[in-house]
Amino acid sequence: MSQNKWYQLNSEDVLQLQQVNMQQGLPWEEAWKRQAEVGRNELSEGQRVSPITLLLNQFKDFMVLVLLGATLISGLLGEYLDAITIVVIIVMNGILGFTQEFRAERSLRALKELSAPNANVWREGAIHQIPARDLVPGDIVFLESGDRVPADVRFLETNGVYIEESALTGESIAVSKSIAPIPHDEVPLGDQRNLGFMGTMVSRGTAKAVVVRIGMGTEMGKIADLIQNTESMETPLQHRLEQLGKILIIVAIALTILVVVAGIMHGQPPYAMFLAGVSLAVAAIPEGLPAIVTIALALGVQRMIKRKAIVRKLPSVETLGCASVICSDKTGTLTQNKMTVTHLWVGGDVLEVTGDGYAPVGHILQSGQHTDAHKHPTLSKLLHVSALCNNATLVEEKQETKRKKGKEGAGGPSSIWNIKGDPTEGALVVLSAKSGITQVSLSEKYKRIAEFPFDSDRKRMSVLVSSENGRMACTKGAPDVLLQHCSYILWDGKVIPFTSTLKQKVISANEGMAKSALRVLGIAYKELKASDRYDDHEDVENGLVFVGLTGMIDPPRKEVREAISKCRKAGIKTVMITGDHQTTAEAIAKQLGMIPANGVSMSGQQIGQLSDDELDAKVNDTYVYARVSPEHKLRIVKSLQRNGHVVAMTGDGVNDAPAIKAADIGIAMGITGTDVSKEASSLILSDDNFSTIVAAIEEGRSIYENIRKFIRYLLASNVGEIMTMFIAMMAGLPLPLVPIQILWVNLVTDGLPAMALGVDQAEKDLMQHKPRSAKESIFARRLGWKIISRGILIGVCTLGAFWLILRVNPTDAETLLKAQSVAFATLVMAQLIHVFDCRSSRSIFHRNPLQNKYLVLAVLSSLILMLGVMYIEALQPIFKTVPLGWKDWILVLIAAGIPTFFMGLGSVLSPKRNKGSRGSRGSSASVYTKSSKPSFR
């Protein structure tokens, strides 16, 4: 029997295939025999990687090997502080990476915890409680409210059973189960109403079922297998830094060899040139780069926490910056996860209901005017019946709010309103409470006598109540079913016969609401006589008086539409992937402005009929995926990746975990998310809000741009140092810088200023450009040109200042010492001026240089350190410096300012070129359709 076709069979055929007698259950001996054949009912964790192996893997990175080489050289040169610093950086990065990977390994263990510990099984004609892992196909199990389903089962008997499957299907509302076979070939997981799935929870009712799949063969097992076989993506930052490390080491070694060889050929002492060359190599490799990247990411993480985004994997912060597609769950992320009645139909009139969430605050409007329910008899009846035919409870929870400084009355208690019970029923309770018809007031007037609960076959629910005016039946249910049991209708406060014309009006109104993706319930009642029977629902639910329709929906979050608009301007496509019905998903997407004019939606059934190539051809034009399974979600993510997208995937359920892990950036919900989805994710939203994702993307882009800023600064500075030495050696000049000065420049300029760039403020147009390509080089968008051009200019100007002093008396030792001091000061000052230029994608003239106070303080600190080695007598012999006069300083400042101000002036004079300086990151605009106001007449 195909694994996913059990829903097509009737109960007798299932029992026959499983070779089990319903009256006796499996014999113990047969159960043990089957267990020996098929194994235990548990999830496999796959091959575990030992913690030691995980730790050692952290030190295989190419940049780490480069840093270890720099450590060895620093030690040989006696620079023990540098060597210790580098070792600390390597160890910290290793521990950080180990911690992240070790936590990720726990996702499968979290999945196993969803398995039921025990099960009530029918064997040899008696009920036994056994460990759930000992269940075998063919076992008959009993389920009741509060039980976790221990395996995939086919229901044999159901008694008002509802199962909460949100972790598996993404639907927040408990699903009623039945035993009727489903004849269709391809049925989405959420519509397989005669099956129960491992790990889901029985919310109410009782059931008897036969086990059809166990362990890794269950739907939960398929997810475990997907998690095991899905590789986490390497982040673009990790790839770029490895690429950068290789380039730097090759270039540094090549140029250093050239400098040493050129110096020796022009008569410089070999030993002195060797020391100078090694010093230059150490300076050329920015060993502080991983530390600065880590610090920039860590500070970005702190900012993101303040914006309700918790980062689990540090490098993934930067990945957000190049996300080109966000695949978002609907319920609770794009919507409020609070079913709300938004429209009513009574007596031929469409009424609109205002108010958000579960707070009983809002109005019922007719043609835009407030309607008093107490003066509208039909409306009043609808609200009373809705609240009475109900098992949900509206709960007010008080919480203290902090008093804001300087504001009186800002503190004190505030209310949080929640629903206990079914969300659909809760929406009706809130609706009634908005008009002052509360459960407390009703309990004083009415007493419940009996209840006929909702049933998937009857599709309606009735409650019998008594009051001083007599007894009444209150009924709600699917309109198409309820209409068949109604003989009258309440119209303008009067009970009149329910004619075919009036019924057609109700049907049209129902269809109009359904097309707008509202969940519609019909409301009816019946005044009971003393002679009427109260124990038979068939008698009670016939000859009802129809009152009206209630239309409800899980409304979109207010802030999400603006967030999606922001994404669109940033060139980011937003996609909805949900387990909900296609009509509902499309309606929400249109309200949020998510679907453009050429956008389409697709169901899980349609996805299942497509090959990977066919899906790849359609995925770019599809904005809504509905009724999808975990395999479908994974296929969608991989298809988008094959189309060149960097994918951010959000989710909260177990069913989302494989896709979350496969995505470039996996995002889990902090409030509703399961442990499995959180462990598989890189980012957790503490408020489950889509707009938080957009804020995180903004931070991710800012962090990446800051990383580019300090890479630009560090490499341009290093190119300047190498060019200073290289040109001097090729020209046959004396050493413009001695080894200790090279190392000091490296220490003074590479540290604090570079770190301060890592926390620089974002440029204003950051979210108005397309995301960068995941394949984009870190030197893209003219960064390579800026590094080389500024670096060469810094080297030329430094050497120019050196030569102007040296030419006065080239053979004099004191003149050489002064010239070297001028070169040292010029090189440091050129780099400290250049750091302000690195803040802008255009030039130093396009941003306020004093805006970043940390950078100003860092530059002042570096300046003081430089002046210290030049003017403190005890340090002068060590660093081979002499104090400079004011004329020397004029020369230093002019030479140091030329690289930045000369290139900046060119940028100001060429505004057109700089307007498009971001290349492919030009703004992207799409015309999206606006949702129209629904009409239900």
From TrEMBL:
Residues 5-79 form the Cation-transporting P-type ATPase N-terminal domain. PROSITE patterns: ATPASE_E1_E2. Residues 927-937 have a biased composition (Polar residues). It is found in: Cell membrane. It is a multi-pass membrane protein. CDD domains: P-type_ATPase_Ca_prok. Gene3D superfamilies: Calcium-transporting ATPase, cytoplasmic domain N, Calcium-transporting ATPase, cytoplasmic transduction domain A, Calcium-transporting ATPase, transmembrane domain, HAD superfamily/HAD-like. The chain crosses the membrane at residues 62-78, 84-102, 247-265, 271-299, 710-731, 743-762, 783-805, 817-833, 854-874, 889-909. It holds the Pfam family Cation_ATPase. Keywords: ATP-binding, Cell membrane, Ion transport, Magnesium, Membrane, Nucleotide-binding, Phosphoprotein, Translocase, Transmembrane, Transmembrane helix, Transport. Belongs to the cation transport ATPase (P-type) (TC 3.A.3) family. Type IIA subfamily. This is Calcium-translocating P-type ATPase, SERCA-type. The lineage of its organism: Bacteria, Bacillati, Bacillota, Bacilli, Bacillales.
